[in-house]
C-alpha cells in the first residue's frame, strides 16, 4: 500500500468528487478547482527545474494556494518546506541556506524580506498573485513515484532557543498521522470548520493531511491570519462547527464580545500546540457551548502523538496515543516510537542520535500515563524551575494565575538567584477593562500554593510575548527578567 501524499490527494478527489470545499475572503473554491490547479502547478514546478527530492519553500499567509501548492509539490515528488511568515532576515537566510531549497512560493507581502534573505542563493521564486500563474499554464502532470520513507516535508523548529533545526518527515509518517487525526475528527461528527492556524506550521500541515483522509465532504473556511473578531463573524456567517486552535487563541476569543454573535453551530475545538490551562478550557466550553478536545505532539512526531475524541476524553489529559504511535514514560520523560517519528534532523546526525535512542524519540516533556492509557503532560524539562532544591513546574503557577478573574495570559519562568539557585517569577496580561497589581497577584498565588512554588514577582505587561504560532515565548520572558 502506498503512503505517497500525492496519491492520497488524488484518491481524496476521486472519492469525494466535485463540491464547494474552501471559502476564502469572499470566494468559494471547489474541490475540482483545487485538484486541477494542483496538477498544473506540479507540471509547472517540473518545467522550472524542480526534481524529486528538491526542497520547495512555502512561505505565505494562509491562502488557497497553500492547499494547492502542498498537493503540487508532493505530486512532483518534491519536499514541502513550510516557513512561518514571521521570520527575521537572518533566521530566514539560515533556513534557506541550510535546506538547500531550489524553489520558493511566497506571498507578495513577503517579497522584500525574502529577496534580501535569498540574495545570491539562486532560488527560483514564485509570488502568489504574480508569476505563480506561470506555474499553471501547462498540461496537468502525473504523480512522481516516491517511497514510503522518502522525505515529504522539512520543517524548521526551535528558532526561539537557538538556530532553527530542520525536522525530516516522511510520506508514511505524515500519512499515518493524518489518518489518526481524521479518526479523532470523525468522532466529533463535524464537517464545517474554520482554519485560523498558520498552514505553514506542523499543526496546520497535519490538519490539511487529515482532511485528505476523510470519507466525508469537509468544508473549510480559511483565515489569512488569526483575527478574533473575524473568527466570530465567520463562525456565525457560515454556521461553522469546529476549529483547530492553540490556547492563546481561546484566550483572545474569550476577551471578545462573543455574546453578540450567533455561535450556536459550534460543537468542538481541537486544542494543540501548547498545554491548555484548565481555567481556559472551562471558560471556553461554557462560553461557546463546545467540547474542547486536547491533543499533544511536536514537529518531530509529525505534529501529533495523542488526542482526545468525543468518546474518549478525560479531565487534564491529552487523550490516548493515536493508533500508529507508541508512548512510554522513561525516567519521567515522554518518549515516542512509531512511523510518525521523524527520519532525523537535517544535516545533524549527532543531534539525531541524542534525540532518538534505541528507537525511542525523547521529547523533552515530562509526563505520565494512567492505567487506561491516557497521557498527561506535566511540563517541558527545559522549563522546569529548581528553587532551593524543589521542582517547580511553570504550568502549575500559570494555572493558578489564570484562576484570577483579571488575568488573561500568564507565563512563569525561572530567574537566576544566588540564594535559591532559581527564583520563580511570572508575567501576566490582563483581560480588557480589568485591573490588578503584581503585588496583588503574588498574594493571590501565595494563598493557593506551597511556599516554595508561588512566584515572588509578577509583572503586568500590555502583552505577554508569543511565538509566531501563538505559544508563550519563554525565552523572551526570561530575557525581560534578565534586563530588569
Helix percent reads 25-40%
Sheet/helix structural class = alpha/beta
Average of pLDDT: 93
The CATH topology of the largest domain is Rossmann fold
CATH architectural arrangement of the largest domain = 3-Layer(aba) Sandwich
Shape: globular
> How large is the share of residues in beta strands?
25-35%
Q: Which regions have little confidence, pLDDT < 50, spanning 5+ residues?
A: none
List how many beta strands DSSP finds.
26
CATH superfamily of the largest domain: ANL, N-terminal domain
Characterization of this structure:
The protein is of the alpha/beta class. It has helices at residues 5-16, 31-47, 64-75, 89-99, 111-117, 171-188, 202-212, 228-238, 247-254, 278-288, 349-355, 394-401, 438-446, 474-483, and strands at residues 20-24, 27-30, 55-59, 79-82, 103-106, 124-127, 151-157, 165-170, 192-195, 219-222, 242-245, 268-271, 291-296, 306-307, 320-321, 326-330, 333-337, 344-345, 356-357, 360-369, 375-380, 385-387, 390-392, 407-417, 421-430, 457-461. α4 packs across α5 (111-117). The longest helix is centred in the middle third of the chain and has 18 residues, at 171-188. The N and C termini lie far apart (58 Å). It is built from 14 helices and 26 strands. β24 and β25 form a beta hairpin. A 5-stranded mixed β-sheet has the order 11-12-13-14-15, sandwiched between helices. The protein has 2 domains: 1-382, Rossmann fold, CATH 3.40.50.12780; 384-483, ANL, C-terminal domain (GMP Synthetase, Chain A, domain 3). The mean pLDDT is 93. Residues 10-346 form the AMP-dependent synthetase/ligase domain. Pfam families: AMP-binding, AMP-binding_C. Residues 397-471 form the AMP-binding enzyme C-terminal domain.
Amino acid at each position: 500500500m502506498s503512503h505517497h501524499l500525492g496519491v492520497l490527494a488524488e484518491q481524496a478527489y476521486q472519492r469525494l468528487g466535485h463540491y464547494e470545499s474552501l471559502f476564502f475572503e469572499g470566494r468559494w473554491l471547489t474541490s475540482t478547482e483545487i485538484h486541477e490547479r494542483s496538477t498544473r502547478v506540479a507540471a509547472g514546478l517540473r518545467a522550472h527545474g524542480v526534481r524529486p527530492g528538491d526542497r520547495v519553500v512555502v512561505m505565505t499567509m494562509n491562502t488557497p494556494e497553500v492547499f494547492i501548492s502542498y498537493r503540487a509539490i508532493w505530486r512532483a515528488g518534491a519536499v514541502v518546506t513550510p516557513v512561518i511568515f514571521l521570520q527575521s532576515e537572518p533566521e530566514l537566510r539560515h533556513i534557506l541556506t541550510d535546506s538547500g531549497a531550489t524553489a520558493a512560493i511566497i506571498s507578495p507581502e513577503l517579497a522584500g524580506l525574502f529577496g534580501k534573505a535569498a540574495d545570491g542563493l539562486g532560488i527560483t521564486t514564485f509570488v502568489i498573485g504574480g508569476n505563480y500563474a506561470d506555474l499553471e499554464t501547462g498540461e496537468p502532470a502525473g504523480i512522481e513515484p516516491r517511497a514510503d520513507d522518502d522525505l515529504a516535508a522539512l520543517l524548521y523548529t526551535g528558532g526561539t532557543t537557538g538556530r532553527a533545526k530542520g525536522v525530516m518527515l516522511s510520506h508514511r509518517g505524515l500519512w499515518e498521522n493524518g489518518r489518526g487525526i481524521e479518526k479523532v475528527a470523525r468522532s466529533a461528527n463535524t464537517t464545517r470548520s474554520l482554519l485560523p492556524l498558520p498552514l505553514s506550521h506542523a499543526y496546520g500541515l497535519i490538519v490539511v493531511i487529515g482532511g485528505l483522509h476523510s470519507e466525508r465532504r469537509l468544508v473549510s473556511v480559511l483565515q489569512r491570519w488569526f483575527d478574533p473578531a473575524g473568527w466570530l463573524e465567520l463562525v456565525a456567517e457560515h454556521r461553522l462547527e469546529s476549529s483547530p486552535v492553540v490556547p492563546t487563541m481561546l484566550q483572545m476569543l474569550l476577551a471578545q464580545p462573543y455574546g453578540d454573535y450567533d455561535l450556536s453551530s459550534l460543537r468542538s475545538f481541537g486544542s494543540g500546540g501548547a498545554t491548555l490551562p484548565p481555567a481556559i478550557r472551562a471558560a471556553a466550553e461554557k462560553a461557546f457551548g463546545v467540547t474542547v478536545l486536547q491533543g499533544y505532539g511536536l514537529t518531530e512526531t509529525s505534529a501529533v502523538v495523542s488526542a482526545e475524541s468525543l468518546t474518549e476524553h478525560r479531565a487534564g489529559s491529552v487523550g490516548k496515543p493515536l493508533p500508529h504511535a507508541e508512548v512510554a514514560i522513561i525516567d519521567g520523560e515522554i518518549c515516542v516510537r512509531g512511523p510518525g517519528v521523524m527520519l532525523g534532523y537535517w544535516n545533524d546526525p549527532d543531534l539525531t542520535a541524542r534525540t532518538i535512542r534505541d528507537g525511542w524519540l525523547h521529547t523533552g516533556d515530562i509526563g505520565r500515563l494512567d492505567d487506561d492509557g491516557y497521557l498527561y503532560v506535566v511540563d517541558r524539562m527545559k522549563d522546569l524551575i529548581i528553587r532551593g532544591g524543589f521542582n517547580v513546574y511553570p504550568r502549575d503557577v500559570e494555572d493558578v494565575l489564570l484562576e484570577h478573574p483579571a488575568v488573561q495570559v500568564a507565563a512563569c519562568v525561572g530567574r537566576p538567584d544566588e540564594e535559591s539557585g532559581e527564583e520563580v517569577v511570572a508575567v501576566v496580561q490582563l483581560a480588557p477593562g480589568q485591573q490588578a497589581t503584581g503585588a496583588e497577584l503574588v498574594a493571590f498565588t501565595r494563598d493557593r500554593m506551597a511556599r516554595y512554588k508561588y512566584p515572588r514577582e509578577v509583572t503586568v505587561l500590555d502583552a505577554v510575548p508569543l511565538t509566531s504560532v501563538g505559544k508563550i515565548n519563554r525565552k523572551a520572558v526570561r530575557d525581560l527578567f534578565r534586563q530588569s
